[in-house]
Amino acid sequence: MNTDAIVKGIRGGDIPSVSRAISIVEDRSQISVSSEIMKKIYDRTGNIHIIGVTGPPGVGKSSMIGKLASEIALRGRKTSIIAVDASSPFTGGTLLGNRVRMQESINRNSIYMRSLASRGFKGGLSSAALSTIRILDAAGFDSVIVETVGSGQADIDIMKIAHTIIVLHAPGLGDILQSIKAGIMEIGDIFVVNKIDREGAFLAIKDIEDSLSMLPGGPWKRKVIGVNSLSGENIDALLDEIERHRSLGKENRGDGEAMQEMSIYIEDELRRIILERSAPKGDLNREMKRMMAKGIDPFNGALKLVTSLVGSEI
Amino acid sequence: MAVGKSQSLFKEKPIKILLAKPGIDGHDRGMFVLAKAFRDAGMDVLYAGLLPTPEEVIDTAVSEDVDVIALSLLNGAHLTVFKKISDLLKKRKIDDIALVGGGTIPDSDKPKLEKMGISGNYGPGTPLSTIIDHVTKRASEARLRKLGGR
Ligand code: B12
Ligand SMILES: Nc1nc2c(ncn2[C@@H]2O[C@H](COP(=O)(O)OP(=O)(O)O)[C@@H](O)[C@H]2O)c(=O)[nH]1
Ligand SMILES: [Mg+2]
Questions:
Q1: Which residues fall inside 5 Å of ion ligand 3, going by CB?
Q2: How far is ligand 3, taken at its centre, from the CA of residue A136, in Å?
Q3: Is the CB of B28 under 6 A from ligand 1?
Q4: What's the CA-to-centroid distance between A293 and ligand 3, angstroms?
Q5: Of A16, A33, B8, B34, which is most buried by a Cβ count within 10 Å?
Q6: Which of chain B's residues have a Cβ under 8 Å away from the Cβ of A5?
Q7: Is A96's Cβ below 8 Å from some Cβ in B?
Q8: Is the pLDDT score of B2 beyond 50?
Q9: CATH 3.40.50.280 for the B3-149 domain, yes or no
């Protein structure tokens, strides 16, 4: 495939070209085309502001992102959205349900939004999400908001490259202490309590503020903002805070950031190779069962399997 | 299309399908049945939400770069509404997204829909496996065009 036309389209911000390019980087069987596209857009990347959004299911991430993107559009900026939906571990199929929650905002403000499937055990999401962000970057989007599924390697990877991380809570969705234990508090730059129309919202805000005061603080003072993602109440205050955080960060991608990205691609590729090489022998699960049947302990079972897969001592 | 061939087409990237009810039609049970069936067949499934306009359906299909749009109406307006979508696709010169229809569609309307490029047009009682096979066939054609061009 000649990639000149599609690359020209991306550089010109042409939506069909951007969409097609994302499909290509999602499709591992087109890796040589992906490689050309990523090479040709590289000089145009490094400017997009990456906003990561995380929090438990049902907390209102998709709804909040819709309203936030609208507010950004209202301020005259070109923004985009990527949302990850969890694939079924049984069939590999995926209900891409995040989109419906933000469809109204997307339609009204012509915001570019793309759904990605997590693909579960098969992996590959980290690479696909990363490449998608860079395509949007090259297409001239000023920012991209990324909604993650809230767990898994790809989530961690996405949060590693996000410039501003928003952690969502909502009243009635369990103990704030749980998220402190899970390490979610540490990664957040801005905390949002959604559904302030609900009872207990004020207490939740107070709870998080107290928890934050116990964590070691840096130069950035982390705030808790209450919003209503159905009415849009206080979303403007949230955007103000995001812009404040952005203005403190560095504008352009440094070597450190590029190396971070490269290491994510490397890990994704390595996982892929292991899975692929184990495929002819059945799948990894079956091999593991075989090890266990032999009474081999997990540590040595893993060593044996990886050694047989990469074909040399490790 | 041989089964082996279509399987390798979708090995790395499953069929992506958009379900849409582009009209005043509150019969949404069929949508959920189909969404679940497509997901269980390994597809990536999108739903266009309530009352999308034909423009919104196409915009979503393009942004998400789906292989197939599944149009469903039980309110009897399929001839006019499905036609709008088909015309809009042609106007935008999109030939690599397939249109599949269904709902309460009288047999006499089916040839007219076929002429617009809308195939299937399955009604109540159609086995899900028939629908999935048909969608897979149309998706394969669309995916081959995507791989071939632009
Ligand atoms: C249940 C039902 C309702 C429920 C809907 C509940 C809900 N949330 O879905 C209620 C009671 C609300 C309702 C209301 C009305 N209904 Co009603 N309803 C039915 C009924 C009995 C069954 C529909 C159903 O859910 N079937 C089960 C699902 C799983 O099947 P399905 O939707 O047909 O989908 C399957 C296939 O058709 C196919 N399919 C569907 N779409 C697509 C798309 C693609 C791409 C493909 C490949 C396949 C496909 O695959 C699906 C899965 O197997 C039908 C009669 C019938 N037997 O079809 C009338 C029927 C559809 N209703 C009818 C009418 C007139 C109405 C009302 C206008 C009645 C009124 N005067 O108030 C209102 C309108 C409501 C509205 N806002 O749109 C008429 C429509 C006549 C027409 N086409 O001209 C029907 C045909 C009854 C009749 N014979 O008169 N209805
Ligand atoms: N009352 C209220 N409900 C909300 C608010 N934001 C989202 N919801 C509802 O919460 C549910 C989950 O929202 P969703 O955005 O899908 O959450 P996600 O799973 O975190 O993406 C939906 O039913 C929303 O309508 C809010 O501010 N107030
Ligand atoms: Mg969501």
A1: A 61-62, 98
A2: 21
A3: yes
A4: 41
A5: B34
A6: 150
A7: yes
A8: no
A9: yes
State the DSSP H helix or E strand holding residue B16, giving kind and residue range, or none if neither: strand B16-20
Q: Which ligand gives the minimal distance to the CA of B69?
A: 1
The HSE-up count of residue A186 (CA atoms within 13 Å, CB side) is 7
Where do we find the tokens 């969705």? A173
Length of chain A: 314
Q: Which chain B residue lies closest to A9 (C-alpha atoms)?
A: B150
DSSP state of B89: H
pLDDT band at B3 (very low <50, low <70, confident <90, very high): very low
ipTM of the complex: 0.94
CB A86 within 8 A of CB A93: no
How much is the pLDDT for A313? Answer: 63
Closest among A175, A190, A171, A183 to A249, alpha carbons compared: A190
Distance B58 CA to ligand 2 centre (A): 26
Q: Where are the domains of chain B?
A: 3-149
What order do you get walking across the sheet with B44-47 strand by strand?
A: A94-95, B44-47, B16-20, B68-73, B98-103, B118-122
Domains and CATH numbers, chain A: 45-253 (3.40.50.300), 263-310 (no CATH)
Structure tokens at B116: 């617009």
H helix or E strand, kind and range, residue A81: strand A79-85
Residues of chain B with C-beta less than 8 angstroms from the C-beta of A6: 150
Question: Angle CA(A261)–CA(A263)–CA(A266) in degrees, nearest 5?
Answer: 115
- Nearest Cα residue to A178 out of A23, A307, A56, A1: A56
The encoded tokens of residue A13 equal 């911000």
Q: What is the mean pLDDT of each run of 10 residues along chain A (314 residues)?
A: 93 97 94 96 95 91 98 97 92 94 93 92 83 97 92 80 92 67 77 94 89 81 96 98 89 75 90 76 78 93 85 67
